[in-house]
Amino acid sequence: MSTGFDTQIKVEGTDIRQLDLKAFRAQMGCVQQEPILFEGTVSENIRLGKMDATQEEIEEAAKAANAHDFILQLPNGYETKLAERGGGMSGGQKQRIAIARALISKPKLLLLDEATSALDTRSERIVQEALERASTGRTCVVVAHRLSTIRNADLILVLKNGVIWESGNHDELVAKNGLYATMLSNQNNLKYIFANIYRSKHRYAGN
């Protein structure tokens, strides 16, 4: 069946249609916008990324995901039982466990699908640090509306109405003063407005 156009997705120069998909998927990790946690211990939730993982591997992945320290503060550490969907945990904590799960298999390709979009500013910063550490030594494909998430990317593709509108790294796109620069300016203005609202609320609360 013809689609009317020929589009290729290549991985290290090879068309994805020529790859062994089972083997390819085994080398992928994915972190989604809404982390999916299951009823069970913290260790069991991380181990879902690699069923034969040792406790040492679990803790190594948690450290890479900025999760180890807060896990140790839980009532039973890694053996703390989580409620379904991670009830009682913050969005940032749940996301870091999901990142650890994605990293435990040491994937060559990491897909990040709006991984910080549902987080508050403080949680976003902690999770972003984890994602930057996780991206070292592997290829990352990031889908994001929060431009702070992709600031350090080697290549940014700016989409508009399903079409690649601009491409380049952060500095190149800012210099073009086009769509990316406009979106960046708008987001920075919103951060400034919300920061002032936050400061005003606390100033009046103290009076």
Structure description:
- By secondary structure, the protein is α/β, with parallel strands linked by helices.
- It folds into 2 domains: 19-153, P-loop containing nucleotide triphosphate hydrolases (Rossmann fold); 170-207.
- The chain is 43% helix and 16% strand.
- It has helices at residues 21-26, 42-47, 55-64, 68-72, 91-103, 121-134, 170-176, 179-205, and strands spanning 10-11, 14-15, 28-31, 40-41, 81-82, 109-113, 139-143, 156-160, 163-168.
- The strands form 4 sheets. It has a 3-stranded parallel β-sheet. Strands 1-2 form a two-stranded antiparallel sheet. Strands 4-5 form a two-stranded antiparallel sheet.
- α5 (91-103) runs parallel beside α6 and α7 packs across α8.
- The termini are far apart.
Can you lay out the helices and strands and say which pair or pack?
Layout: E1 10-11, E2 14-15, H1 21-26, E3 28-31, E4 40-41, H2 42-47, H3 55-64, H4 68-72, E5 81-82, H5 91-103, E6 109-113, H6 121-134, E7 139-143, E8 156-160, E9 163-168, H7 170-176, H8 179-205
Parallel strand pairs: 3-6, 6-7
Antiparallel strand pairs: 1-2, 4-5, 8-9
Helix pairs in contact: 3-5, 5-6, 7-8
